[in-house]
């Protein structure tokens, strides 16, 4: 059941002040990351410079109107990552990584500012939804044609000669992780075409061959099927899954064996990854070897070897894959147990704050958004195991910023437009 219309008005993007638009566009550019670049300069870099200028000339208007332990823990995490530069095994790599963390932190700050104000929530989500739909369209085109989105000048996209979609990311795992993060919000749209979006996400994740994220998405859809009390919605999600299978069958004539191999491989790889047995799959074998090497490095260096430095170590040791593809292990080996503890603690506190009854039932809007953000964060935890490197994944900073911002939302006296259906317990 959606919220009543008399409860809301719509703060349109075009009616916002120009500086508000700059911040919102900067967040959207953070979502796109390297997907729009001019040589070595990203659209994100340009928008960050403009946003920083705005903050310098109008600091009072856009300062954070709250301070809590979630922000404090995040800043401690950033500060500790900075200190790892002091003992880094490869200072240049560590400096580059900290620059990315700083950029991500600025995007997180802007997201907190925008999402904690009722006047900006809907324009923010609408803008993110717009670029999200564009990326889905690009990924679909990449599946059926040889077209590839031009990701970052000079970037060697090893998927360019395949039909594996990469969207704005240049990497299929990063693409599918973003799609998974958005799944709870897509399923809560009040529009019937949301099932079409879910269908496309299923198809993209399958053809992206991101086996870990295929398991995560399947698990979330199964959870949605179980907890949803609406029989019609249950039927629709089943039909959506069946239709996606039929479309894959049309695109891939050997669908029967392909889907069986893909699903079987996903669960075998999950088992191998959890229990550490190296199989014949080159990708998982290399990642397991990287994980084993990372654990050894951590045992020898409990404080970490410096953010970004693992890439140099693996390069010198002749590994074909230089990214650990597990953000938690990456933090453990590069910045030690302290960094990993702070990050996990921050996630736990954000989720706990979102689930807090005093916020869950303050307003229906807040209650619904909190549930969706919790689902997004829970999905994010296993999904970021698949991404190449977490420090460079700007959408992660946006999700964290949304989580913190929505737990400190203000201006409740003002009505808002809410385009998502109310979540039921």
Describe this structure in words.
By secondary structure, the protein is an all-alpha fold. The chain has one domain. Helices cover 66% and strands 1% of the residues. The protein is built from 16 helices and two strands. It has helices spanning 18-32, 43-57, 69-83, 91-115, 118-144, 172-187, 194-207, 211-227, 231-251, 255-275, 282-300, 309-316, 327-355, 357-360, 364-383, 394-406, and strands at 37-38, 41-42. Strands 1-2 form a two-stranded antiparallel sheet. A hairpin with a 2-residue loop joins strand 1 and strand 2. The radius of gyration is 21 Å and the shape is globular. The protein starts with 17 loop residues before the first helix and ends in a 19-residue tail after the last helix.
Short account of what is shown:
The chain is an all-alpha fold. It contains 16 helices and 2 strands. It has one domain (15-406).
Mean pLDDT: 78
Q: How many domains is the backbone divided into?
A: 1
Name the helicity range: 55-70%
Multimeric state of these chains? single chain
Count of discrete alpha- or pi-helical segments spanning 4 or more residues: 16
Structural class: mainly alpha
Largest sheet: 2 strands, antiparallel
Strands, total number: 2
The order of strands across the largest sheet is 1-2
pLDDT < 50 runs, ≥5 residues: 1-10, 412-425
Keywords:
mainly alpha; 2 strands; two-stranded antiparallel ribbon; globular; 1% strand; disordered C terminus; single chain; 425 residues; disordered N terminus
Element layout with pairings:
Elements: H1 18-32, E1 37-38, E2 41-42, H2 43-57, H3 69-83, H4 91-115, H5 118-144, H6 172-187, H7 194-207, H8 211-227, H9 231-251, H10 255-275, H11 282-300, H12 309-316, H13 327-355, H14 357-360, H15 364-383, H16 394-406
Antiparallel strand pairs: 1-2
Helix pairs in contact: 1-2, 1-4, 1-5, 3-13, 4-16, 5-7, 6-7, 6-15, 7-9, 8-9, 8-10, 11-13, 13-15, 13-16, 15-16
InterPro entries: O-antigen_ligase-rel_domated, WaaL-like
Protein name: Teichuronic acid biosynthesis protein TuaE, putative secreted polysaccharide polymerase
Membrane topology: Multi-pass membrane protein
């Amino acid at each position: 059941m959606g919220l009543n219309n008399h409860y809301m008005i719509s703060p349109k993007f075009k009616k916002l002040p120009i500086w508000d638009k700059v911040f919102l566009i900067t967040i959207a550019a953070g979502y796109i990351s390297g997907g729009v670049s001019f040589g070595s300069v990203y659209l994100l870099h340009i928008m960050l410079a403009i946003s920083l200028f705005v903050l310098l000339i109008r600091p009072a208007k856009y300062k954070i109107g709250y301070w809590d332990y979630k922000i404090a823990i995040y800043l401690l995490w950033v500060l500790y990552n900075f200190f790892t530069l002091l003992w880094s095994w490869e200072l240049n790599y560590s400096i580059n990584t900290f620059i990315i963390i700083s950029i991500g932190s600025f995007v997180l700050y802007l997201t907190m500012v925008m999402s904690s104000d009722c006047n900006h929530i809907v324009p923010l989500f609408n803008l993110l939804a717009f670029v999200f739909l564009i990326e889905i369209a690009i990924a679909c085109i990449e599946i059926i044609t040889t077209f590839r989105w031009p990701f970052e000048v000079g970037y060697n996209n090893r998927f360019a000669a395949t039909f594996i979609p990469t969207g704005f990311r240049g990497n299929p795992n990063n693409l599918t992780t973003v799609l998974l993060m958005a799944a709870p919000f897509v399923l809560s749209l009040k529009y019937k075409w949301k099932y079409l979006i879910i269908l496309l996400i299923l198809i993209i994740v399958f053809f992206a061959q991101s086996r870990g994220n295929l398991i995560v998405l399947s698990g979330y859809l199964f959870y949605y099927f179980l907890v949803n009390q609406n029989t019609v919605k249950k039927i629709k999600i089943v039909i959506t899954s069946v239709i996606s299978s039929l479309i894959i069958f049309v695109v891939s004539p050997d669908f029967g064996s392909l889907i069986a191999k893909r699903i079987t491989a996903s669960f075998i790889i999950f088992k191998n990854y959890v229990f550490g047995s190296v199989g014949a799959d080159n990708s998982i074998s290399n990642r397991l070897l990287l994980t084993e090497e990372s654990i050894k490095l951590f045992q020898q260096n409990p404080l970490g070897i410096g953010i970004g430095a693992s890439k140099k170590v693996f390069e010198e040791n002749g590994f074909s894959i230089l990214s650990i593809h597990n953000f938690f292990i990456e933090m453990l080996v590069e910045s030690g147990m302290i960094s990993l503890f702070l990050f996990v603690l921050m996630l736990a506190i954000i989720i706990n704050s979102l689930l807090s009854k005093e916020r869950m039932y303050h307003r229906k809007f807040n209650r619904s958004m909190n549930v969706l953000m919790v689902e997004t964060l829970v999905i994010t935890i296993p999904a970021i195991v698949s991404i190449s490197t977490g420090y460079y994944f700007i959408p992660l900073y946006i999700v964290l910023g949304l989580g913190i911002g929505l737990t400190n939302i203000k201006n409740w006296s003002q009505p808002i437009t809410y385009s998502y259906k109310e979540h039921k317990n």
